[in-house]
Specification:
Distance between the termini: 55 Å
Structural class: alpha/beta
Largest sheet: 7 strands, mixed
CATH architecture of the domain at 3-259: 3-Layer(aba) Sandwich
Strand order of the largest sheet: 10-23-24-25-21-22-11
Radius of gyration: 31 Å
Number of strands: 25
Length: 559
RNA sequence: UGGGGCGUAGUAUAAUGGUAGUACACCUGGUUUUGGUCCAGGCAGUUGGGGUUCGACUCCCUACGCCCCAGCCA
């Protein structure tokens, strides 16, 4: 047993190991990720993507991307494109195996005819209501449809007519003839085809009958020679039907395996409700940085690696669980800490005048680009008489343990000098608008030759060289830990989920930022918003803050 | 009440008959020119009850708890 296998030993991998030992699939592993293009992918899908592509990769197998596009009234091409982009961005490659359920409509139709000919399927004229009423209940068996005994010939003829558009929506369905008294409701003569006179995003008006999920899915898996068909827990009840169809047809038969979908606290994963947030403009779109969508996370500044690490980290089981969203944030911090270039940006500026610094002087100081990675090198940052520091880095009446700036206190400006605050300038309403400080020219670079220590180190930006930017600070979208469970999830929207710092000042190296996530030292990780940065206006999104033990201490101990 | 699943620290997740481990969270301390990172230490768990066994998270029985299912959605 090698290291890799030890790390990756979730229950699905164990099944694969067993299959490998028994030679069940001739050592083949072939999975698929089968999204329905009826919305954007979210972090929950990411778990499934990482599982399916990941398990194929780890076992030298392959994974297909397959659109389960069997319901034209909900599906759109826009979603297809976004899904392709998102899976690609996560770093997975389906090579030439991009498939659509709609590519198999003809074959599915032929299979249905086969079932009819075997006497295992029939056309039912009952209405939707009637079918539901006759299905029975959890405790009572259902009633058989009066059309259950139609002849094969009649069924064949009616099915042709269905296909040819001779009936209206809902007039007839094709049903499997199984058992109306089955304890599993899914087996009580489930619908295989329904009539939908709707334009499909790929097949146009070629079809007016569309296959139901249960009928279609196993066949899609079978056609693609999938070995392990991995889906979520709620389909456990459908497995007997999945198996029944494939057994009736006596064709290649993949194994369906169910795992628990991802749940995150303070996060809502329902596609329907996410769509509502978008449609009702509670967020700016599917890619709003507060959305749990892949596109939202991307715009927020998440990296594919962080998401993949997270998916690996939370594991795969059959237990319903709710993962703490801070683990997703931690996965991001972990990745970004190693790779993000450090820069200085003042979000909420307070002007500082160094009274003993020459009026017109600007000097360039060396700053480390990434202390975690010496290869990232250094850069020059301009220093001058007037600077900005963070409002929150000054307190007129500081509490114990506050080791930033206060009247008479000395702190270090990162990579620059020690400064001491001598005077606090206020406006008429008593607000602090400016600090007058003196610097110690001996401390250039940030250390004192006399060995003198300061506790605080502040980030800063030179006034003359500062770049203006709008910075958006995001917080969780919902206040409630389980927003999906409440009746009115909109009532739980966090009114402060996006705070804007309109007057942020950034160091000059950020005049033309790359499309990567930076660390603003002592603040957090930020990425330029490519959508909203326009005509000279820079907008940055905060992906996640840095861990802040001072904020925690302050919160726990009051003042 | 029928059927299908699931119960291990606060939250997740390992251990498949042999020392209950890991991560995050939480608490201490150390290092630090980011109150970041990093390092060291600590707290804390097998749903209850029986049984089998030298030995049970693991096997058996039973009780309890939680999740899913009555779309012509997926």
């Amino acid at each position: 047993m090698n290291e890799v296998k030890k790390e990756m030993n979730n229950f699905i991998q164990k099944i694969i190991n067993d299959d490998s030992d028994s030679g069940k699939w001739n050592n083949r592993v072939h999975t698929r990720f089968p999204p329905e293009p009826n919305g954007y992918l979210h972090i929950g899908h990411a778990k499934s993507i990482c599982l399916n592509f990941g398990i194929a990769e780890k076992n030298k197998g392959t994974c297909n991307l397959r659109f389960d596009d069997t319901n034209p009234v909900k599906e759109e091409e826009e979603y297809v494109q976004s899904i392709i982009e998102d899976v690609k961005w996560l770093g997975f490659d389906w090579e030439d195996r991009l498939f659509y359920a709609s590519d198999y409509f003809e074959q599915l139709y032929e299979f249905a005819i086969q079932l009819i000919q075997d006497g295992s399927a029939y056309i039912c004229d009952l209405s939707g209501d009637e079918i539901r009423n006759m299905r029975g209940s959890l405790n009572e068996p259902g009633l058989e449809s009066p059309h259950r005994t139609r002849s094969v010939e009649e069924n064949l003829e009616l099915f042709h007519k269905m296909k040819n558009g001779e009936f209206g929506n809902g007039e007839k369905v094709l049903r499997a003839k199984i058992n109306m008294a089955h304890p599993n409701l899914n087996m009580r003569d489930p619908v295989m085809y329904r009539i939908l006179h709707a334009k499909h995003h790929r097949t146009g008006n070629d079809w007016c009958i569309y296959p139901m999920y249960d009928w279609a899915h196993g066949l899609e898996d079978s056609i693609e020679r999938i070995t392990h068909s991995i889906c979520t827990l709620e389909f456990e009840d459908h497995r007997p039907l999945y198996d029944w169809y494939l057994n009736q047809l006596d064709i290649y038969h993949p194994q369906q395996i169910e795992f628990a979908r991802l749940n995150l606290n303070f996060t809502m994963m329902s596609k329907r409700k996410l769509k509502q947030l978008v449609d009702e403009n509670h967020v700016s779109g599917w890619d709003d940085p507060r959305m749990p969508t892949i596109s939202g996370l991307r715009r927020r500044g998440y990296t594919p690696k962080a998401i993949r690490n997270f998916a690996e980290d939370v594991g795969v089981t059959k237990r319903d669980s709710i993962i703490d969203v801070v683990r997703l944030e931690n996965a991001l911090r972990e990745d970004l800490n190693k790779i993000a270039p450090r820069v200085m940006g003042v979000l909420d500026p307070l002007k500082v005048v160094i009274t003993n610094y020459p009026e017109d002087k600007t000097e360039l100081l060396k700053a480390v680009n990434n202390p975690e990675n010496p290869d990232a090198g250094k850069r020059d940052i301009p220093f001058s008489k007037e600077l900005y520091i963070e409002q929150s880095d000054f307190m007129e009446d500081p509490p114990r343990k506050f080791f930033r700036l206060g009247p008479g206190r000395e702190v270090r400006l990162r990579y620059a000098y020690f400064i001491t605050c001598n005077e606090v300038i206020k406006n008429k309403s008593g607000e602090i608008i400016e600090l007058h400080c003196t610097y110690d020219s001996e401390t250039k670079g940030g250390s004192a030759p006399d060995g003198r220590k300061v506790k605080g180190t502040l980030h800063w930006v030179s006034v003359n060289d500062a770049i203006d930017a709008e910075v958006r600070l995001y917080d969780r979208l919902f206040l409630n830990e389980n927003p999906g469970e409440t009746d009115d999830f909109l009532a739980n929207l966090n009114p402060e989920s996006c705070k804007t710092q309109a007057n942020a000042k950034l160091e000059s190296s950020l005049s033309n930022p790359e499309n990567i996530t930076y660390q603003f030292e002592r603040n957090g990780y930020f990425i330029k918003d490519e959508k909203d940065s326009m005509n000279g206006k820079l907008v940055f999104n905060r992906a996640v803050s840095l861990r802040d033990s001072w904020a925690k201490f302050f919160k726990n101990n009051g003042k």
